[in-house]
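Problem statement: downstream parser choked on a complex file, so we are re-checking the raw output for the magnesium ion run. The parser issue turned out to be on our end (a line-ending mismatch), but while we're here, posting the original submission so the record is complete.
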Amino acid sequence: MRSVADHARAVADLFSPTPVESVAIADALGRAVVDDVRAAVSLPGFDNSAMDGYAVRAAEIADATADTPTRLTVTEDIYAGRTDRLRLDPDTAHRIMTGAPLPEGADAVVAVEATDGGVDEVAIATPVAEGTSIRRAGSDIAAGDTALTAGTVLHASQVGLLAALGVAQVRVHEPFHVVVLSTGSELMAPGVDLDHGQIYESNGAMLCAAVREAGGRATPVHFVPDDVEQFRARLDTMITGGGRVDLILTSGGVSAGAYEVVKDALAGHGVEFVKVAMQPGMPQGCGTYSAADGVSVPIVTLPGNPVSAQVSFEIFVRPPMRAAMGLPADRTRRRARLTDDMRSPRGKEQFRRGVVAVDAEGTASVHPIGPPSSHHLRFLASANALIDIPADTDDVAAGSTVEVILLEP
Ligand code: AMP
Ligand code: MG
């Protein structure tokens, strides 16, 4: 049997980086910038007021008190957006709004609350130190500084910084395109009444969602007949059908049964089927499928049981797919104290569903939920972590420390 680490490497070797494109910053949300982004302008771009108030020379109001306020003539009204360059003459004040450019000669802003709010003349009741309520040009970022380093993922605040710097477009990796192919004649679409022996198809929706959550694009396909020629013909159509396909991801049809269409159609066609020493998810396959016209596409064949399929996606597909888009590949792993005794099959790395909780002191504990079998989708749906039990371990006692993979950011 192949180890999880070896199979992960075999799958990762099939992936290559997606092309780089230039997109509007709004469309780059969740994607990673390919280059360092340098600030073309400073932020702030000019000295400006941090308050609604009065631009003054601090020394001129040094003796102001509530009883004997300093009175200054107000000679200008500076609103945010005024573009003329002003100068503050001695013994005068300019009324100034937040974000408005500071006049030359002013060295402080007195907040309107410390004044009588006068329009032609202002009475100032308290002195302020030089520099008060002034936002200096370049104090946030100076032109030429690195605003974002290559590889930074764009969330709302990074998009905000780019917008503030006047950046309209950034270079990012194109999304990774995955065709998610479900096989099995028992699988029905939602909305139909099920006959005995039929189930609703769930891997397609789940794996497409997983691909999208990881930053990729997914197209679901359901292939029904157990016919290898038709299966290969369908793959060929998908590959040569026009749109880019970076990966074909199948589920089902790879284990030891009699109707294993994926395995039967692809064994000997560039895809290697192996047993991986893991639970869930032992039957796996990966390789490069060559379509009839010579185009070849990476293919990963996941087992059909929903928990196996989803766990296999997490372990084998998600990391290299994210890396191909320049995104951080790995989920956070941490140590946690196990709340219950657990058994794990010796010789297989086990990924059990768990709920991780962190107490006020920051200590993490993990509660294993649901049986190990791989049809218990409901428990997977209430887990926030996978408990990763090494292959050489069979008994894990409550209270011991285990490694968990956090499924949430
Ligand atoms: P297979 O690997 O095709 O033998 O499938 C193993 C188990 O997973 C069977 O119980 C299948 O019915 C189930 N299964 C396979 N594919 C899907 C799917 N797309 N949605 C839900 N269950 C599936
Ligand atoms: Mg099947």
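For whoever reads this later: The CA atoms of residues 65 and 225 lie 90 Å apart.
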